Amino acid sequence: MAELSAASRRQWLQGAAALGAAAVAPGLRAQSGPVRIGYAMSRTGPWTPGAQVSQEPNYLLWAEQVNAAGGLDVKGVKRPVELISSDDRSDIETCVRSYQKLMGSDKVDLILPPWGSNANFAIAPLAQRFGYPMLAPTALSRKLIDMNLSYFFSLLQQPDRMMGALVDMLAASGAKTVAIVYMDDLFGLENFAALNNALKKTSIQVVERKSYPLGVKDLSPVLRGIKELNPDAFIGITYPPDTVLASKQAKEVGFNPKFFYCSVGTAFQLYRNVITAPGAEGVLGMGSWNAKTSPEAKAYFDAHTRRFEGKEPDRWASGHCWAGLQILQSAVGKVGLDRKALRDWIAGTTHKTIIGDIRFTGSENTATPGTVGQWQNGEFEVVWPQSVATARLNAAKPAWK
Fold first, then answer.
1. Closest-CA residue to 241 (of 47, 10, 26, 27)
2. pTM of the entire predicted model
3. Could you read off the pLDDT of 27-43 as tens digits, one per residue?
4. 3-state secondary structure at position 7
């Protein structure tokens, strides 16, 4: 999405709050003091593509909608939302300092999480120390779950679930061989380990395993080597820039396996557009919902697309991000802004959201199954497992176009 300046963000939210002041629902008292909600988000640096698709647009849209409706219901009192945010510059130290200030000296009422597994891994212990509930929509880390932080809640399906679903789909579809490339960081390593564990339970042979560093600019030598091995499936455990890079260069070198899977970013509208819409046909990736999932999901999809002038939410983490905001809003309506009470309510409740029921076991969302998505006729469909599918799997990727 086109990024908004800090002044534009403030003007936008202040305008929405002013419009909403006259629209307080019957039975709710109005109060002028804002609910101050803080976060840091990548607006520059390599995390920006993911952050500016899956998270910050949702924060802005949610605050605008809440303020236009008169404010956030805090146990029967409507109060405007004030977002206090900064650019973390895709840098862990900057991110940590930003949240220390928000929770320590600024003493905001609530926080929203940063983007990505690495940033969440750094911030979650800090939120635990300060006692701030943290509903994270882009943290994919079993290590983070196993830290047993009582204030941290991960909305995404974890690596064992996502990689398990992928391997189940490949095995059920007759894949015999697979080649893997993966990002050499927390996200890549954890998903790679989960993928290997799942593959060990099958007869699928791994013909190649290659890691690559953050900021990689050329994967064509690796892809040419894999092409010579002729695997049935290619799996890239990738971030958005690498997802696009791997796909473009696979097309350039003529590598077109039966199953072509890349991780983060495949579910983005940008991917479909950059790979030239029909060229994305049949590509698999991480996804768990679309506008067909529920009427509420369609309403959210349409509102997002209208507000950001045709820019769509992605079909994975965007939905989980909105679900987290729904959970937070419901929690504040029930118990107010006491953060311990919020934590307890979030931990002990089954939550109705646009992507279905969410319930936490410790820090993990254990109600949402691992899923696989696939581009079909311009839509990123959920194709596995069949219990939540929005379309049938196309088990033979067509040639790149």
1. 47
2. 0.89
3. 455 556 999 999 999 99
4. helix
Mean of the per-residue pLDDT values of the chain: 93
Q: Enumerate the β-bridge partners of residue 365.
A: 360
Closest CA to 134 of 118, 111, 157: 111
Asked whether the predicted pLDDT for residue 215 surpasses 90, the reply is: no
| CA separation for the pair 116, 214 (Å, rounded) | 13
158 and 145 Cβ atoms separated by less than 8 Å = yes
Q: Report, in this order, helix, strand and coil percent for the chain, each rounded to 5.
A: 45, 20, 35
What is the tens place of the pLDDT at every residue in 90-127? 999 999 999 999 999 999 999 999 999 999 999 999 99
Q: Give which of 133, 68, 74 is closest to 339, Cα–Cα.
A: 133
- Interatomic CA distance for residues 6 and 332, integer angstroms: 26
Are 19 and 68 in contact by the 8 Å Cβ rule? The answer is yes
How many helices (DSSP H) and strands (DSSP E) are in the chain?
14, 19
* Range in 23-37, 165-179, 291-305 with the lowest mean pLDDT: 23-37
The residue length of the chain stands at 401
Same fold, 6-158+292-365 and 159-289+371-388: yes
Q: What homologous superfamily does CATH list for 159-289+371-388?
A: Response regulator (3.40.50.2300)
- pLDDT bin (cut points 50, 70, 90) of residue 20 is very low
Q: Rounded distance, CA 357 to CA 214, Å?
A: 35
> 237-283, pLDDT tens digit by residue?
999 999 999 999 999 999 999 999 999 999 999 999 999 889 999 99
Residue range 301-316: mean pLDDT, rounded: 97
Q: H or E stretch including 361?
A: strand 360-361
110 torsion bin: left (phi>0), alpha (psi -120 to 50), beta (else): beta
AA identity, residue 392:
R
Query: Rounded to an integer, what distance in angstroms lies between the CA atom of residue 112 and that of residue 56?
Result: 10
| Phi-psi sector, 306: left (phi>0), alpha (psi -120 to 50), beta | alpha
Which residues are paired to 333 by β-bridges? none
What is the structure's pLDDT at 245?
Answer: 97
Annotated domain spans of the chain = 6-158+292-365, 159-289+371-388
- Work out the number of other CB atoms within 10 angstroms of the CB of residue 305: 15
Superfamily of domain 6-158+292-365: Response regulator (3.40.50.2300)
